[in-house]
Each structure stands twice: as structure tokens, then as C-alpha cells.
Write a structure and sequence with these properties.
By secondary structure, the protein is mainly alpha-helical. The chain contains 7 helices and no strands. Keywords: Coiled coil, Signal.
């Protein structure tokens, strides 16, 4: 009785009872017709009702199972998408940290790189100066050697002239081989020679043209004074050369010390630059990775959402199908309980 009342309510809810002919249009409907055909023809409707009730119970279980799966799927999908969204939030935090680190570490990298560049410029300048000064020193030393040779030549010429004048009597010098040699030396001397060529020439001429011993002695004395003056000049020149050489040595030593200091700075600054470059590289990698995650995760969310929607649609279809099939069984049961003659009539025509 309770079943009949329930089916009556179902009928009222649906508005009309099912037509058995319509059941032929689906495989499920055909299976329902097959299940009830023999029992209805044999007037054993209790078996039919029991079989159909079993069908309905099985369908209801399938429907509940589909609903449970749908509920579980929704929860799992929501959890997965929320997890993906948390990954996005985490990636945004990582991106912000990486950006801050990149900006923070780029500044000291630029500063150390600028210092390294400056030190390299200073070192290159010192090395270039060292080469230039070395070349200048070489030329200077060559000039000093040349000038020293001129001092020696001038002193030798004075000695030769003095010896010649001391060994001859006045008026006999014009054809003297030694004096001719002295004349040749005088002619070969540069105008800027330490021997003071014009004065040397005057004193030689004075000695050569001396008519008496007194004039000759005066000429010799003046030549000796000139020789002594040249020797003193040579000594001062050599002392000056020693000071110049010492100055060169001190200058090169200072350059070497400065170069050593700059090379040490270059080594230290290079290590600093390499260290900051490594940090910047790590920050850039972290930045790129966070950017990739932010870009890729929405695609994963979209893919996951598509999979979830597809599975949801499948479970919803199962729920709808089992609900529809359960409804069919309810209507068929109502017919059996309330319109058995019509049911029997339908099968009598088959």
C-alpha cells in the first residue's frame, strides 16, 4: 500500500504516467520490458515488482555512488585549484623577493665593477708611464754617455795642446804634428762641446802665435785653467748623473710599489665582482623561475579545471541517467499497481 501511495505521488508530480511503447526507444527501457513481460503475462506481478524494486535500489545506489564521486571530485578539484592558486601566491612572493634581491645586489655589483674598471685604468696608466719613462731614461743615458765622451775628448785635447806647447819653443808650432792633431780635434768638436770651442780656439791661437816665453806660458796657464774647468764640469756632470739615476730608480720603485698595490686591488675587486655576479645570477634565475611559475600555473589551473569539468559532466550524466532510469521504474511500477490491465494488454499485442 505504501508503495502504491508513493507511486501515486510520483504520478501527480510527473503529470502523466509512462507509455510502455516509449520504453522501446532505449536499451534500458527494453531491459525493463523484458524483466516484466513474463511475469505480467503469467499474472505474477509480485515478482515483477520485486525485480523492478531491485533495479531501482541498484540504480539508487549507483546514483548515490555517482553523487559521492561528484562530491569527492569537486572537493579534490577545489583543493587542487586552491593549491595551484597558493602556488601562484607563493610564486608572486618569490618573484618580489627575487626582484628585490636583484635590485639590491645589482647596485654593489655596479659599484665594484666601476672600482675594478678604475683600478685597471690606473694600472694601465702606470704601466704605460713606466714604458714611456723607461724609453726616456734610455735616451737620457745615451745622451749622458755621449756628453761624457765629449768631456773626455775636450780634456784630452787640452792635455795634448798643453803638452805640445810645453815641448816647443815660441814660433815653432804651426807645422807641429801634435798641434795639427789638436787643430783637427778642435774642428771636429761640436759648437756646444764642454771644451768651450771658441775659447779653446783663441787660447790655441794665442799659444801658436806666441813670440816669447811669457806669452807662451800665459797661453799654457789659460789652457790648464780651461782643462781644470772642464774636469770640474765633468765631475759635476757625473754627480748630476748619479742623482738622476737615483731619481730614476726611486721613481721606478714608486711605480712598482703602486703597481703592486693596484694589482692587489684588481685581484680583490675581481673576486668581489665575481661574488656579486654570482648573487645577481642566482637572483635572476630565481626571478625567471618565479616568472615562469606565474605564467605556467594559470595554464595548469585551466587544464585541471577542464579535466574536472569533464569528469563532473560524466558524473552528472550518470546521476541524471540513474535518476531518469529510477523514474522510469517508478512509473512502470505505478502502471503495474494501478493499470495492470493496460500493461497486460500491451504485452498481449507484442
Amino acid at each position: 500500500m505504501r508503495t502504491i501511495i508513493g507511486l501515486a505521488f510520483i504520478l501527480l508530480a510527473y503529470g502523466e504516467y509512462i507509455k510502455l511503447e516509449d520504453l522501446k526507444s532505449s536499451e534500458f527501457g527494453k531491459s525493463v520490458l523484458n524483466a516484466i513481460e513474463l511475469s505480467v503475462k503469467s499474472d505474477n506481478t509480485d515478482v515483477t515488482i520485486k525485480v523492478l524494486s531491485g533495479f531501482k535500489q541498484s540504480l539508487n545506489e549507483q546514483g548515490r555512488d555517482a553523487e559521492d564521486k561528484l562530491s569527492t571530485l569537486k572537493a579534490e578539484c577545489d583543493d587542487a585549484i586552491n593549491q595551484y592558486l597558493s602556488y601562484v601566491a607563493s610564486a608572486k612572493i618569490d618573484l618580489s623577493k627575487a626582484r628585490n634581491s636583484l635590485e639590491e645586489w645589482q647596485k654593489p655589483l655596479d659599484q665594484w665593477s666601476a672600482l675594478l674598471s678604475q683600478r685597471n685604468k690606473e694600472l694601465n696608466m702606470i704601466q704605460a708611464n713606466s714604458v714611456d719613462i723607461e724609453s726616456y731614461k734610455k735616451d737620457d743615458l745615451e745622451n749622458q754617455e755621449k756628453l761624457l765622451e765629449e768631456y773626455n775628448q775636450a780634456i784630452s785635447a787640452c792635455d795634448d795642446a798643453i803638452n805640445c806647447l810645453n815641448s816647443q819653443t815660441p814660433g815653432t808650432f804651426l807645422q807641429s804634428p801634435v798641434m795639427l792633431q789638436v787643430d783637427s780635434q778642435i774642428q771636429s768638436m761640436a759648437v756646444a762641446s764642454p771644451a768651450n770651442v771658441p775659447l779653446f780656439k783663441v787660447l790655441i791661437e794665442l799659444g801658436k802665435n806666441a813670440k816669447d816665453q811669457k806669452t807662451l806660458a800665459r797661453s799654457i796657464a789659460l789652457l790648464e785653467n780651461l782643462r781644470d774647468h772642464i774636469k770640474n764640469s765633468k765631475f759635476e756632470f757625473q754627480e748630476s748623473n748619479k742623482l738622476a739615476k737615483s731619481a730614476y730608480d726611486e721613481y721606478f720603485q714608486a711605480l712598482d710599489e703602486e703597481a703592486i698595490k693596484l694589482k692587489k686591488d684588481v685581484e680583490d675587486f675581481t673576486l668581489e665582482v665575481q661574488d656579486w655576479k654570482a648573487k645577481v645570477k642566482d637572483a635572476k634565475s630565481a626571478y625567471d623561475e618565479a616568472t615562469r611559475r606565474i605564467t605556467d600555473i594559470p595554464k595548469l589551473i585551466e587544464q585541471k579545471q577542464g579535466m574536472c569539468d569533464s569528469e563532473k559532466s560524466m558524473h552528472e550524466k550518470d546521476i541524471q541517467e540513474t535518476s531518469s532510469q529510477s523514474e522510469i521504474i517508478d512509473r512502470v511500477l505505478w502502471l503495474i499497481n494501478n493499470k495492470l490491465d493496460e500493461v497486460q494488454g500491451f504485452f498481449s499485442k507484442v
